[in-house]
Amino acid sequence: MIKNFWYACEFSSAITNKPKQIVMLNQRFVLYRNLQGQVVALKDRCSHRGAALSMGWLENGCIRCPYHGWKFQANGQCIEIPSNAPGTLIPKKASVDSYPVQEKYGFVWLFYGDLPEEQYPPIPPLPEYQDPTMHPIYLEYEMKAHYTRVIENALDPAHLYAVHANSFGAGFAQDPRVEEYVVRDEDWGISAKITYKNYTKPKNGIFKSFFRPARTQLNAKTSFYLPNITKIESDFGRGKMINYAVHIPVDDNTTISKRIQFRNFFTYSWADRIFVKFHQKVGLEDRVVTESQHPKLIPDTLSTEVHVPADALTIAYRKLRQKYLAMGWGLEPNKTASDNSKVHFLTLR
């Protein structure tokens, strides 16, 4: 896991004026909205006896611990201890870590790290979010797999005909070869344009209506943005679909992928359930193989596993990840928030 990046940790619509626990990076955070509607992010552990603040309640924009009622304001500082006599000084250590947050593209983004604000990497652009011709759907699913394996699955161009043979990948079986492609460097990421030759209609699902029985060329662009975002742009002539996925590292064995899918065809709201159902089917196909992989975490050295030309994009991802681990931006497994430098609260709108 890597620090010093913005992590999209939840859909904005899921954060309300009730405390919500978010588990990410082997840690627990509590998120809620203050009186002004701004998102507050704190460490979900009271500094007194370690109770989960997410089980508490809000009061005038502050959060109360469910155990002894200690009251913490948005910057994490305790401002009231009910058991104390009037006038008793509050200990300086009576505070919890707070974290910078942004709301953008329908997500709440939390910055986790120890960089000064002026050195924060940017949130990747999602231009389709404001494109009126692109209709979005939102969904998520969980895999019992390390997030690096989940990311590589999204970036891998060679598994479609095998893993997705019962959905959209059936047409690739006649010629599963992946033509040579070029991996390009992006700002804080990588990308590649890949062409697939489809020979038959998919067996089922919405794509049956858009692939011809004879040969169809599918043009795709796959991108990765640090630390955990994949983007797949698919153009099959009769329509265009763009899939963004934020692969949240919950812990060393669990990943939650929160997704926004955009399409410029069948943009009726009544059709959303069809696309959601199909997307979930595809996700289940990926989950079966991804959860079977061993070791759970991708190896630190390229020589540990065998590679072929079709793996160019996943190899580039591994090299990019190693670059930032070598810079000291890695997080040790099960590393707690108290082991890291405290980051002060900041809300950006």
From TrEMBL:
Pfam families: Rieske, VanA_C. The keyword Transmembrane helix does not apply. InterPro entries: ARHD_Rieske_2Fe_2S (IPR015881), Cholesterol_7-desaturase (IPR050584), Rieske_2Fe-2S (IPR017941), Rieske_2Fe-2S_sf (IPR036922), VanA_C_cat (IPR044043). Residues 6-110 form the Rieske domain. Keywords: 2Fe-2S, Dioxygenase, Iron, Iron-sulfur, Metal-binding, Oxidoreductase. One of its GO terms (molecular function) is iron ion binding. This is Aromatic ring-hydroxylating dioxygenase subunit alpha. It comes from Dendronalium phyllosphericum CENA369.
